[in-house]
Amino acid sequence: MELENLDAPGETSLLIVDDIPENLNVLGGILEMDGHQVFAATSGAQALAIAAHTALDLVLVDVNMPGMDGFELCRRLKANEATAEIPVIFVTAMTDTEDVVAGFQAGGADYISKPVRREEVRARVRTQLQSRRYLMAQRAQAEHYRGIVNNMAEGLLILDAQGVIRFVNPRVCHLLGFGEEQLLGHGLGEFLEENHVQAYRDYLATHAPLGPRNLALPHGPREVELRRQGGELLSLDLTVSPLFLRQPLYIGLLHDISRHKASERELLRIANVDSLTNLANRRHFDVVLRQEWQRALRNGLPLSLAIIDVDHFKLYNDSLGHQAGDRCLQQVAGAIRSLAQRPTDLAARYGGEEFALVFAETNADQALHLGQALTARVAALRLPHLRSPTHDWVTVSVGLATIRPRREDRVERLLEAADRALYQAKEAGRNRVAQAD
Question: In 125-230, where do the E strands start and end?
Fold first, then answer.
């Protein structure tokens, strides 16, 4: 048996504390037979010194010792964070109820009565070591799971039955830009964009009273927007699943789709935008025109369409080259875009040197005013056109048509009327607006 030998090998380290060497020898002999590494101390102070430098699995201590008794030693071990979880077994002849209670109140885990019996010692020591190993295994497993949760690529949060946030992992804080203390205790609805709030309130209200049979009914993933620190909205997929334990809880998983949404918007923009002029392309024009046609039909409102042609553009290209022609179209497109001020207005490249403007809720007089403003703005660009028989500058001709759609009408009727008006503007000398009857 070793006295204060801190370097001895062994899988399980035990400390025996007794002021009588004979007792140390008897107890140490029993424990060493089972392969334990045994340390010995003859006083409380010596025991504390050993515990401060040795990873101990169990302490067996005599109660009656001079100076610091076993109860006081146990209290000091429990008061130190580094040694608080080491189980303590009292080895004593003091087995009255009051003494036993005092030992447990001091933090003791068990009692061995003197004189010690070999099999009892082995059994009680084995029980405490098994309990400690189980506790350490549970803690290691908990740390393992905590590490997984804390390093997840997804944000994980736990909600109570009222939707109040009770736990968040670091990823949630990173995504939303809030500290943990700014999230815990707050309702999920405080961060959801208002269009999503009611859906999640309804989900929680529906599932909370129904109990464990709804464990297989997750809500999601659903695309939502959550408000970040500073008010910015972040696009996320949110999945909420019920977790019924002693009280209903919900696990929420947040997956960041903001880059995906940005890519999606960019692909949509590429698909809908003319690459030269940055106006809507013909495909997007066709979609929007039909949408506005249906809206005008439902609401009984006027819909106006302008078809615009750059006058004598072939001559411009032939004289100055295609690169100059592209720059010309871009500048004309800028003038056209400046007239599409409302969310329902659309400026588009119709094809080649032709453009289109869709004006929802715009009557014929208003459309005529806009068409005249357009011809003036293009002329004001003062783009030289030396071969134009119409003007010294680049000009445009505009065909306008306005309609209040009826159910028997077709959108093609509006397009055909605007095309005829454009033809009339060209026939009348160009650089002007013609309006269909």
Answer: 155-160, 165-168, 219-227
Strand partners, 164: 187
Q: Using the CB atoms, write b or e for 182-192: b if 16+ within 10 Å.
A: ebeeebbbebb
Q: How many CB atoms lie within 10 A of CB 108?
A: 22
Share of the chain above pLDDT 90, in %: 80
- Beta bridge partners, 8, equal none
Q: What is the CATH number of domain 155-260?
A: 3.30.450.20
115: preceding bond cis by omega (within 30 degrees): yes
What is the per-residue pLDDT for 171? Answer: 96
Render pLDDT for 197-248 as a digit per residue (tens, 0 to 9). Answer: 888 888 777 765 555 444 445 666 788 999 999 999 999 999 988 876 667 7
Distance CA 52, CA 62 (A): 19
Q: Is the pLDDT of residue 69 over 50?
A: yes
User: pTM for this one?
Assistant: 0.57
Average confidence (pLDDT) over 36-64: 95
At the topology level of CATH, where does 2-147 sit? Rossmann fold (3.40.50)
Domain ranges (residues) in the chain: 2-147, 155-260, 273-435
Quickly count: other Cβ atoms within 10 Å of residue 150's Cβ. 11
Write b or e for each residue in 32-41: b if 16 or more Cβ atoms lie within 10 A of its Cβ, otherwise e.
eeeebbbbbb
Take residue 135 and report the two structure tokens written for it. Answer: 């506790």
One-letter amino acid at 223 equals E
Average pLDDT over residues 55-81: 95
**CA-CA distances (angstroms) from residue 407 to 86, 293, 295, 362, 437?**
86, 11, 12, 19, 20
Of residues 422, 427, 428, 426, the one with CA closest to residue 436: 422
Do 316 and 385 contact (CB within 8 A), yes or no?
Answer: yes
* Distances from the Cα of 433 to the Cα of 180, 307, 308, 418, angstroms: 63, 10, 9, 11
Q: How far apart are CA 349 and CA 400, in angstroms?
A: 16
Model pLDDT, residue 208: 58
Question: Could you say which of 3.30.70.270, 3.40.50.80, 1.20.210.10, 3.40.1440.60 is the CATH number of the domain covering 273-435?
Answer: 3.30.70.270
Pairing of strands 396-403, 433-435: parallel
